Amino acid sequence: MQYEPIKRSLGRVFRKSILLKKLLYLLLDLLLLRSWHVRKAIGRTSSLLPSDARVLDAGSGFGQYTWRMSSRHRGWNIKGIDINDEEVAECNEFFRKTGRSGRVAFFAGDLTKLDETGLYDLVLTVDVMEHITEDEKVFSNFSKALKPGGKLIISTPSDMGGSDVHDHDDTSFIDEHVRDGYGKEEIISKLEKAGFSKVDVAYTYGRAGSISWRISMKYPVKMLNSSYFFFILLPFWYIIAFPVALVLNFIDVNVVNKSGTGLLVTAEKIQ
Fold it and tell me: How many CB atoms lie within 10 A of CB 99?
């Protein structure tokens, strides 16, 4: 199933005004369970960073995580990198209009070719690694780009049903994914090989989170892939689905999931 065309269509709708873009960020913050887990991880990590931390948002997309970080941490300098030129341009324009271009900037780039050394206190990458074949190269690039002791936060599907793949006959729910998900030991091994220590891996999208994902993402995306006519019906769908998803998201982020279709990974560059 093609997810990127839907993202582009939504982006074009919400980029029409600053208010609409802020509304998009708010909706993504509330609706996407991964955002709940990422916000929690950033909150825990922020106390370990300097007040003028340099941050790399690797695969910045719509820019929603950069928006939140720049709102909560006014001293941070944040660089977003994304392979989508259109989204990079839109983010630069939005952050310029909102007065944050002095400490936030976005650039088009390929993370497999990232070539920076010892610049960042934090690298954040959300729903990116499942799109990249050369993942070990990217992990090494992140390690190189971080200062000694710098932090890494990753959100990505797990191999326990990530991308809605539950057995060998299934195909990924998202056509753009090059892998269905990581196993805990696999991603720990790859990060340690790249120069990271203190690798912590937690399951996300447990029982409650998986239900939330279906009603808030899977079913709407499937409808939109069948016909853009369903854009008209989306508000009515979410009148019912939105409050249910909020409760399920709250449960998922506040319990220890013994398994789950997502992973939240934190690590530290070896000093």
Answer: 9
pLDDT beneath 70, residues of the chain: 1-14, 16, 162-177, 228
* CB-side neighbour CA atoms (13 Å) of 58: 31
**Which pLDDT score is estimated for 38?**
97
Distance separating alpha carbons of residues 152 and 55, to the nearest angstrom: 10
* pLDDT of res. 142: 98
Helix 85-97 to helix 4-14 angle (10° resolution) is 20
Query: pTM of the entire structure?
Result: 0.88
Asked if 204 contacts 262 with a C-beta cutoff of 8 angstroms, the reply is: yes
**Cα 133–Cα 271–Cα 142 angle in degrees, nearest 5:** 20
CB atoms within 10 A of CB 259: 12
Q: Which residue has the tokens 């993402």?
A: 217
DSSP string, the chain: ---HHHHHHHHHHHTTSHHHHHHHHHHHHHH-HHHHHHHHHHHHHHTTS-TT-EEEEET-TTSHHHHHHHHH-TT-EEEEEES-HHHHHHHHHHHHHTT-TTTEEEEE--GGG----S-EEEEEEES-GGG-S-HHHHHHHHHHHEEEEEEEEEEEEBTTTGGG--STT---SSTT-SSS-B-HHHHHHHHHHTTEEEEEEEEES-HHHHHHHIIIIIHHHHHHHH-GGGGTTHHHHHHHHHHHHHHHHHHHHTS-BSS-SEEEEEEEE--
Other Cβ atoms within 10 Å of 115 Cβ, number: 8
